[in-house]
Amino acid sequence: QHYYITNNLRNMSKESQSPKRKRRRCLPVGEIMEAEEEKPEFKIIDGLRYVVPYKFILRTYTKKRWFDRGILEVLSQEFQAYPASYYETALSSGRITVNDKTVRHDYLLQDHDFIAHHVHRHEPPVIDGVIQTIAECEEILVVNKPASIPIHTTGRYRHNTLLKHLETKHGQKLFTCHRLDRLTSGIIVLLKTTQKAKEYGALFRAQKVSKTYLALCDGEFPVDGLSCSEPILQVSHKLGINKVDHVNGKAAHTDFKRLHYDRATNRSLVLCLPQTGKMHQIRVHLAHRGYPITNDPIYSRENWAKKSTDEFSKELTEVLFRNDNISTLISSKMEDNVSDKLKQSISTGEKECSSEPPDKEAKDKEPTDKEAKEADTTAVPDTVKNDTAVSEDSLQQSAGHFTVSGDGIKQAAEISITPEGKFCLDGKVYARIPRLSYEEGCPECSWIRLVPDTQDMLIFLHAVRYELDGKFYVSPLPEWCPKEWIPEEFHQLLQMSPSA
User: Fold this and answer.
1) Averaged over 236-243, what is the pLDDT?
2) Which of 84, 93, 191, 298 is deepest in the core (most CB within 10 A)?
């Protein structure tokens, strides 16, 4: 009798307790309920696939380090994609709410506060490459991933991803068991059931998968090939930087075989056989041995391995930002001696967006780090209609110093405008990304984004063959790899026909 009474009391006690609130992870890009999401619309323009900007709700619970801090302070410091002035306006207009209520910008965040941010989401374009199916059965789908497209939702990408496109095409949920970098092309193994995804994921973790890659590297690679067993350490998760580190690095091994050396370009085609699966392993090992992948935006940097982590991170931030021109915008508040002709030559499309005149003192001196962080990067020069070109006479006057900014990065840049109204940056000419939609109050609709160079959207690294679970999958050669560079002894491995 005592036993039953005790257990009944325990059950009553449990029922009276309020259920614990499930904490959700804080997301820099947020979450959205599927029911609220509209079907995406895509546009193919000059070989690039764009997602028409769409309404989206970023959702997150507060992190512990945000407790008792003003919401404006948290938003402007933790999420630097937008300037502090935008967050202040968004709070007052209700675009950003806490617990579904409008709050003041000095509201102190508390535990379990739920923040929602209604945005007009702009995704970067990707190369409109064909996603070729290599093999398919009831549980497995193997495809040849084009360069430039991420596998799954990450950062600013949501719909312009491999999984989203394939799930829409096949009408079912797909699961990953491994990954490839966004800039890398080649074989991706996808699963149609969670059970198969667990099985194949275990094979990759146990290193029971034979992987073969092709890489185009700088320099004359040794005829007999080479191996690299240098340990690898991730020194920056945010920037994705990895280095050889003999103290704290994790074991990694890659074998390399030379397939061809092109004396005219001083480049080598190399077969890469990674025996372990560390992030950027092939790229780091090739660079460490003095043969970096030719167009690698990270590890082709001169003497990168000899620089300190801070030095390399600073340099890499600039390199990645300039190469990733999809994130470029121009701020008139940070301008220095920009002529009226240049102001008149920049258009923001159908809707006009006015900007406050820059502070006079700010024009006469370099901004401090604090001032740069607080600068309003959404402001643009006075606008006119689209397709307004600068005359030959005013072209010389149109050059100016700007702060090029985006994704929380700010740096000085020399920008000029051609007679056709295109932008010159770092010796390259870029067109402006066309406006595909507009929403009042969206800062990104006023930003000047440049169409990326497709050569900056890929690297010469391709996953050409995977072997696992008693099966092997081979993809076609990438465009940058001439068939005649493949020695005959490797034709069978790469499933090349005799006529190739």
Assistant:
1) 77
2) 298
Q: Indicate the burial class of 278 (C-beta count within 10 angstroms; 0-12, 13-18, 19 or more).
A: buried
Report residue 346's pLDDT band, with 50, 70 and 90 as the boundaries. Answer: very low
Of residues 51, 29, 312, 269, the one with CA closest to residue 160:
51
Long-range contacts of 294-302 (CB under 8 A, 24+ apart): 294/216, 294/217, 294/218, 294/267, 294/460, 295/455, 295/458, 295/459, 295/460, 296/459, 296/461, 297/183, 297/323, 297/456, 297/459, 298/240, 298/241, 300/218
Element (H, E) at 226: strand 226-228
The closest alpha carbon to 239, from 351, 149, 315, belongs to 315
Sign of CA dihedral 218, 221, 227, 230: negative
Residue 235's pLDDT band (cuts 50, 70, 90): confident
- The H or E element that residue 50 is part of is strand 48-51
Positive or negative, the CA dihedral 312, 315, 321, 322 is negative
Task: Tell me which DSSP letter residue 437 carries.
Answer: -
**CA 181 – CA 295 distance, rounded (Å):** 14
Contact criterion met (CB below 8 Å) for 465 and 361: no
Residue 479 has pLDDT above 90, yes or no: yes
Going by pLDDT thresholds of 50, 70 and 90, the confidence category of residue 365 is very low
Distance of CA 449 to the CA centre of its chain: 15
pLDDT digits (tens, 9 = 90+) for 95-107: 999 999 999 999 9
Site of tokens 């102001």 = 343
Compute the residue count for the chain: 500
| Residues assigned a catalytic role | 181
Report the distance separating Cα 109 and Cα 339, nearest Å: 44
Q: What is the pLDDT averaged over residues 71-86?
A: 89
Task: Determine the average pLDDT of the residues in 36-60.
Answer: 89
Using CA atoms, how far residue 346 sits from 165, 189, 431, 436, 444, in Å, is 34, 45, 12, 17, 15
Please tell me the distance from the alpha carbon of residue 438 to that of residue 436, in angstroms, as a whole number.
Answer: 7
Give this prediction's pTM.
Answer: 0.76
**Model pLDDT, residue 313:** 61
**What's phi and psi for 281, nearest 5 deg?**
-60, -50
Rg of the chain's alpha carbons, rounded to an integer?
A: 26
Is the pLDDT at 377 greater than 80? The verdict is no
Residue 117 DSSP class: E
CA dihedral 353, 356, 357, 361 (to 10 degrees): -140
Dihedrals phi, psi of 370, to nearest 5 degrees: -65, -40
Token output for 30? 């947020």
